[in-house]
Each structure stands twice: as C-alpha cells, then as structure tokens.
Design brief:
The chain is of the alpha/beta class and 283 residues long. It has 8 helices and 15 strands. Helices cover 27% and strands 32% of the residues. It is globular. Bound molecules: adenosine-5'-triphosphate and magnesium ion.
Length: 283
C-alpha cells in the first residue's frame, strides 16, 4: 500500500486525479473523504491543502505527493522529485506598476516587494546581490502596490491577465513551475516497487499524448518510400493484403505531423487511410 497526498481542491486537484485515472487508478471523486482508497491499485489518497503536501511527504505521512514546484521550493522540501508532470504550469515573476520605467533588476534595490513566496524571492535577490525589503502576505498580493503596502510584487503568473487588470507589468521571471510528483526519501522496497509501477504507467500515458495510430493500404513496391515518411516507433508494421501487390501499413505518428505525412503518402499511392486515437504506449 502506498499513500499519495493530493490537493483537496484548487488548480491541481482535477488534473492530479485525472492523471491517476489515466494510469488506471480510479478514485471516487464524489462523496470525497479526506482519505480515499482506490479499488484498482494498492493506493490510498490523502487530500490536503497544497501548502501541507511538501511537509507531509518529507515526514512520510504520505509516501508520495503531487504539488507545484513553487510550493516545493518555497517550503525547502527535502522530499525527492520523482517526476515532473507537465501540468499546472506557471511562473514566479516580479511585477511593478505599469507606469514605471524599468531597466534591469537593480530597479528593486531598496524597494519593498510583497509576496507569498519569501524564500524563493530572497534567494533570487541574493543571487543577484540586490537588497530589498520583503513584505510577506498570504493572499491578494497583486493589490499591494495600489494600496501602498509595497512598491512591487513577486507572485504566480500564468496568462498575466491578473497583473494587467491590477495595473501591473511583469518585468522579471525568477522561476518556472509545474506540478511534480514527490516522494519520501528512502522509501521501503515494497513502496519503491509501487512507485516504479506508477511511474511506468505515467510515462506510458505521457508518451501517447499527441500521438495517433495510422493505417493504410499501400502498393507493396512503394513500401520503402512510405516507410521513410512514417518511421514509426521501431519501424512501421507491414502486413500483406489478400490482393496481390498490396500491403497494409501501420505506424504511430505525431499529431502535429499527421496531415503533412498523409499528403505525402497519398502522393505515392496510399489508399484507405485510417487515423485512430492512441490511448497508451507501452514500450
Ligand atoms: P490550497 O487551498 O490547496 O492551499 P492554493 O489556493 O494555495 O490552494 P491554487 O490556487 O489552487 O493554490 O494553486 C495551486 C498550484 O497551482 C500553485 O501553487 C501553482 O503551482 C499552480 N498554478 C498554475 N497556474 C496557476 C495560476 N494561474 N495561479 C495560481 N497557481 C497556479
Ligand atoms: Mg495553498
């Protein structure tokens, strides 16, 4: 049995549950309890506020956790990062009132900066040798300059819309964040094996993203040219058709390249092209 801490509600909740679901680990999301079991995998889900996840995993209250890299860094978490998950992407940036003229980061020398991420900000400023005052506030950071609480802010940005609507402009980015799977250091062998199984499934899910399965009929004498267009995972699969001189060719392709490849395949005589969704890629 392995215990995974997930955000109970908020921006990472749905995608965390969705990822486990795609990995074949269903969790009852209605009538949610603080601690839930999965029917399909020896896993128990512990729902927490994201602030509490790094510490819970570090201490082994949960064996694994899904949390933003920003929270992980801010809490100086000693849990290990087992995998970067690629969702919940955002950045931590410095922003100033939009009417200010800005040259470089020395602008912040002697300024007061409001943030909920004092640890990350302090490190960023120290690395640049800038002395500034940090005003730690828990929320609504973006209104701090307008109400005279600070000269600038350091906060999470994704689209930048919140900054603009508060009369601010982003001038420096200190870190890029995404959701990460973290693990208690020194997991017991049985739990380590479950983590490896989970990672294997997550990687298979990730690999199939943006991929399609394509099959078509092709004159057998054009197979070398078609194979050059569709390299496939190892090489394309070729099956003979009942009709003499024709073959069926199958391959996995990148969705972004799909239409270009189809044009080229048609040009060398491919017919009856089918494109199918690809759910998992187990290598
Ligand atoms: P909790 O109630 O669990 O403490 P929270 O309010 O602290 O939740 P959320 O706003 O749900 O946190 O954000 C969780 C994480 O989602 C952030 O720490 C960050 O890693 C990520 N994230 C991605 N995009 C954004 C965004 N636009 N604004 C805030 N967080 C974002
Ligand atoms: Mg939080």
């Amino acid at each position: 049995m392995i215990r995974i801490a997930l955000q109970s509600k908020g921006r990472l909740n749905e995608e965390s549950i969705g990822l486990l679901h795609e990995a074949g680990i269903g969790i009852e999301s209605s009538r949610r309890k603080l601690l839930a079991r999965s029917e399909d995998f020896p896993v128990e889900i512990l729902y927490l506020r994201d602030d509490d996840i790094p510490h819970a995993v570090e201490r082994g209250v949960a064996d694994l956790g899904i949390v933003g890299l920003n929270e992980y860094e801010e809490r100086r978490c000693r849990a290990t990062i087992a995998h970067r998950l690629g969702f919940g992407k955002c950045r931590l940036s410095l922003a100033i009132p939009k009417g200010e003229t800005y040259g470089d980061a020395t602008y912040f020398e002697g300024k007061r900066i409001a943030t909920s991420y004092p640890v990350i900000l302090r490190k960023y400023l120290d690395d640049k040798g800038i002395r500034a005052e940090i005003e730690e506030i828990a929320g609504s950071v973006e209104i701090a300059p307008a109400v005279g609480l600070a000269d600038a802010i350091f906060d999470i940005v994704s689209s930048g819309g919140t900054l603009v609507s508060n009369g601010l402009k982003e001038v420096e980015t200190a870190m890029h964040s995404e959701a990460v799977l973290i693990a208690t250091p020194g997991l017991a062998a049985e739990k380590r094996a479950l983590l490896d199984q989970l990672l294997f499934r997550i990687e298979s899910v990730e690999r199939s993203r943006g991929k399609k399965y394509i099959l078509m009929n092709i004159p057998s004498d054009r197979i070398p040219e078609a194979a050059a267009i569709l390299p496939g995972v190892k090489s394309p699969t070729i099956l003979p058709l009942a009709e003499e001189g024709w073959s069926s060719m199958h391959a996995v392709v990148d969705e972004r390249e799909l239409w270009g490849q189809i044009e080229r395949l048609k040009a060398i005589g491919a017919e009856d092209i089918l494109v199918l969704a690809l759910e998992k890629m187990i290598l």
